[in-house]
């Protein structure tokens, strides 16, 4: 029930909070979300009844949507104010790498604290969030109030007013393609426990798998900048998709458990390269005045795609073998590689 309420509240509040972020400023939106998360963590300590836990699930979802969209919009805006937009990919990939590493460490620390008391992780989280909100208050608000007023006199008339890429249909094809890839990758990641168990990998090894995935993601984010110096962004996405396609074909034929484990791990962090590079491309194609709103709309679409694909995967696993399922994923990534390449080659 907690997850159901969380997902519903995320879907309902994603776009409105993105719009609010464009109106009150991305910095203020992030501070609002951080404070709400601190309140949620503190109230989790006091919550005793199930109804309170359900309400707090909604509060957590709303809090995250205040941050979602506004965080990357603020980063791009800060770089644009210094004429450093071309550094967005490099800096954002490093931030994502740090986040992934910190998240992995936080999970470990939280697990240790929970052995003594379930309240300790929430209290520590609340304290850290309060400190984070304080630091955020010191960040200079780059977007002038007059510009915010100008940007939000009307919500969004049409996508054409807010997307710079032409033709608009090609942008939508690119974004929907990336969203579908996101759904495939997330669906596979979420089903990894079932897939790894089906080939005889132990529960302890599966736990190690998910821990290592955070480390792998950090390396994936850090690899983006060096790769961008060697290849252009469209080629990085294409090569990553081809790697996923061939990797799943190989995985469908692997019998050795150790090799299956390693290939599965690689196939989980390669998509992070795709999403980081795609994000930098999309940022360049969005009009500044409604950036947070548009990113929130796109986040909602990605979430819906992930939900639909995850449901399809659940049904597929009941009617096909693991080998056939992995081949199906390979075909999905192969088709995506071709479609994304076509769109990016027509980019101007």
TrEMBL record:
PROSITE patterns attached to this UniProt entry: MFS (PS50850)
Transmembrane portions of the chain: 30-47, 53-74, 95-114, 120-139, 163-181, 201-224, 236-253, 259-278, 299-319, 325-344
Annotated membrane topology: Multi-pass membrane protein
Cell location: Cell membrane
Recorded GO MF terms: transmembrane transporter activity
Keyword Transport attached: yes
Entry superkingdom: Bacteria
A GO-annotated cellular component: plasma membrane
InterPro entries (UniProt xref): MFS, MFS_DHA3_Transporter, MFS_dom, MFS_trans_sf
Domain Major facilitator superfamily (MFS) profile, residue spans: 1-348
Keyword field contains Membrane: yes
Alphabetic keyword roster: Membrane, Transmembrane, Transmembrane helix, Transport
Listed name of the protein: MFS transporter
Organism expressing this protein natively: Sellimonas catena
Lineage: Bacteria, Bacillati, Bacillota, Clostridia, Lachnospirales
């Amino acid at each position: 029930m907690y997850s159901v309420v969380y997902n519903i509240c995320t879907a309902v509040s994603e776009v409105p909070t993105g719009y609010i972020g464009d109106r009150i400023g991305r910095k203020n939106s992030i501070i609002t979300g951080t404070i709400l998360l601190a309140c949620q963590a503190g109230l989790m300590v006091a919550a005793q009844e199930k109804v309170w836990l359900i309400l707090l699930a909604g509060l957590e979802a709303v809090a995250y949507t205040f941050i979602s969209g506004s965080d990357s919009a603020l980063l791009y805006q800060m770089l644009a104010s210094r004429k450093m937009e071309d550094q967005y990919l490099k800096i954002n990939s490093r931030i994502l790498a740090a986040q992934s590493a910190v998240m992995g460490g936080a999970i470990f620390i939280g697990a240790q604290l929970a052995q003594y008391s379930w309240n300790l992780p929430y209290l520590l989280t609340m304290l850290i969030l309060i400190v984070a909100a304080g630091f955020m208050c010191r960040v200079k608000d780059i977007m002038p109030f007059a510009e915010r007023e100008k940007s939000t006199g009307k919500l969004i008339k049409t996508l054409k007013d807010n997307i710079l890429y032409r033709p608009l249909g090609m942008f939508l094809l690119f974004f929907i393609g990336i969203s579908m890839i996101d759904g495939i990758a997330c669906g596979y990641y979420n089903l990894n426990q079932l897939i790894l168990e089906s080939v005889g990998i132990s529960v302890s090894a599966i736990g190690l798998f998910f821990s290592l995935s955070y480390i792998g993601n950090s390396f994936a984010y850090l690899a983006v900048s060096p790769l961008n110096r060697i290849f252009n962004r469209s080629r990085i996405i294409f090569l990553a998709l081809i790697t996923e396609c061939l990797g799943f074909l190989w995985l469908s034929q692997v019998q050795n458990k150790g090799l299956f484990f390693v290939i599965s791990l690689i196939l989980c962090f390669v998509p992070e390269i795709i999403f980081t590079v795609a994000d930098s491309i999309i940022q360049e194609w969005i009009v500044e005045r409604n950036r947070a709103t548009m990113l929130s709309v796109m986040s909602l679409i990605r979430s819906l795609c992930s939900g639909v694909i995850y449901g399809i995967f659940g049904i597929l696993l009941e009617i096909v073998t693991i080998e056939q399922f992995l081949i199906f994923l390979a075909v999905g990534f192969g088709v995506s590689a071709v479609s994304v390449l076509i769109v990016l080659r027509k980019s101007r």
